[in-house]
Design a protein that fits this description.
heterodimer, A: 612 residues, mainly alpha, 26 helices, 73% helix, globular, B: 98 residues, Helix Hairpins, elongated
Amino acid sequence: MHPTTLILSSSLILVIAILIYPLLTTLNPKLQNQKWAITHVKSSVKTAFLVSLLPLVIFLDQGTETIVTNWHWMNTALFDINISFKFDHYSIIFTPIALYVTWSILEFASWYMHSDPLMNRFFKYLLLFLVAMVLLVSANNMFQLFIGWEGVGIMSFLLIGWWYGRADANTAALQAVLYNRVGDIGLIMAMAWLAMNLNSWEIQQIFFLSKNFNMTLPLLGLILAATGKSAQFGLHPWLPSAMEGPTPVSALLHSSTMVVAGIFLLIRLHPLMENNDVALTTCLCLGALTTLFTAACALTQNDIKKIVAFSTSSQLGLMMVTIGLNQPQLAFLHICTHAFFKAMLFLCSGSIIHSLNDEQDIRKMGGLQNLMPMTSTCLTIGSLALTGTPFLAGFFSKDAIIEALNTSHLNAWALILTLIATSFTAVYSFRVVYFVTMGTPRFLPLSPINENNPSVINPIKRLAWGSIIAGLIITSNFLPSKTPIMSMPLTLKLAALLVTIIGLLTALELTAMTNKQFKITPTIPIHHFSNMLGYFPAIIHRLTPKLNLTLGQSIATQLVDQTWFEATGPKGVSSLQVKMAKSVSDAQQGMIKTYLTIFLLTTTIAIFLAMI
Amino acid sequence: MTPVHFSFSSAFILGLMGLTFHRTHLLSALLCLEGMMLSLFIALALWTLQFEMTGFSAAPMLLLAFSACEASAGLALLVATARTHGTDRLQNLNLLQC
């Protein structure tokens, strides 16, 4: 067998085996060592990352992709389900990046959670999540993808509710599960449609056969699934609530890996969507609405983790817009670059939170530039990468997306919304940096500020390197399959940069106004709209359950009890009979013999007449 | 009129006379009702034979089924009368007579 394919397939299966091994050691009833989390989990993720670099390099050199089909799992007479892994361009690039980010996060978590007695369990949950995510991105059929999908959903629930003694954490975890479930309805509907009409869940067969069908219905199902998992508008409130979980969870699940699963699904199944205008327009408009709405909500939040969460949601909307533009590769590029700087932003926030003795309100931070220089520098680097500063990681993906949006002849409304959201990105990023690192300290003097532990600084430094050079490395090594439009007017070319600078200048002006009061009675409603997240959770979380429960109550009481039982069913029949009997019996006078005698006489005469 | 027609017609009229002029017991009225049903059964069976309509063969059976229902309803009324009035003698059923 050719050495290339042998090395490729075996190293990819080895990656998954390395990740699963620590989980198998926990099945042993004998007690593990106290440092199991560090010796087993972190080193396995690091090893898996190094091993996964080998297929990446092979793919870079020779462009080989592979599909590994292991085991014929089950079949009915006409339908097969196999275990098969597809390592194409998307999963070969995503797996090393996810493993690199996870390695850094696990090292950070060994510092962040070191005082937690259940730290080993925490690492086990994170590892289980990672395995589910790798299964999801490498799935070659919908069933395996669904296993990974549900796996990440459940691990998200367990990890958000890690501190389950806290009522807010429990409600946040429940919220995550419920919103994800609504999205899962779409995925299951799409899978059922595919099984019924295309008779297969294998991705290659779906691509081949879909040309003959009108794919609007399953595509809308898939978009619903992405809306749920990737927190698009309508099913978005779970993502900011998910910040109740520990910071490593927010960094891993809710910034780099799990929330991109929905977008990844759409990228993977993009050939189905290429010619379907309904699906593309839905993606475009939904993504544009999401990115603007969540960026607007991020403007007035005061919890540092919530701001970063809304920032994640806004970038996810941007990825959705890119899919709507028929550019799955750009969306994938943005997923990869976004993983680096978003995870780093979360890790910096975690370091700051721990250093200020669990303070998460940015109004009570300040002046950390001098007290935590490394962390605040990396925070600034991450924010710059997020806003798309030229030649950092975010620039290559974000600028390319905005250029593609500008030169397309699609929806102008989506374009305007995206540009406004880009300027908002600059505003809230600057707000975070200003409140956290600049100015004078607003926290208590006896805060245990310490960033000298290497397990804090090394992950953040690694991710900072990633945020700086990842965009350059990925774009220079992987050619786009769709030709980007290179020539456009200067204003369009600089549009992203211009709106970002406008946003930054506006934010600078606004910060200069923080200690002056221009209006005696400021206009509060706009602030309230943004701070209350557009009133969306406040309305929906009460209204939907109330409507459902009152519908159930009226069905049970009015329809079943009062109508079917009383008026039309058995009781109705009996009451009708009684009424009729009463009205008829009034007319009779009971002279039965007389009536029957007359009847007898008539019948006898009739028969005699018939005889003659 | 043929003798067969005469026989079931007269059976019907006799049963009807028994139903009309019942003197003592309600049960005897019900028995005459059964006799009328029997004569009608014979009449329907003769109809099938005389007109040679094989499709009509089920009609006597239908009549029999429904007459069974009606007989049971009558007996239920008899039992109800016996429960409330203590006997089925017709002299007792004069509560509503004006």
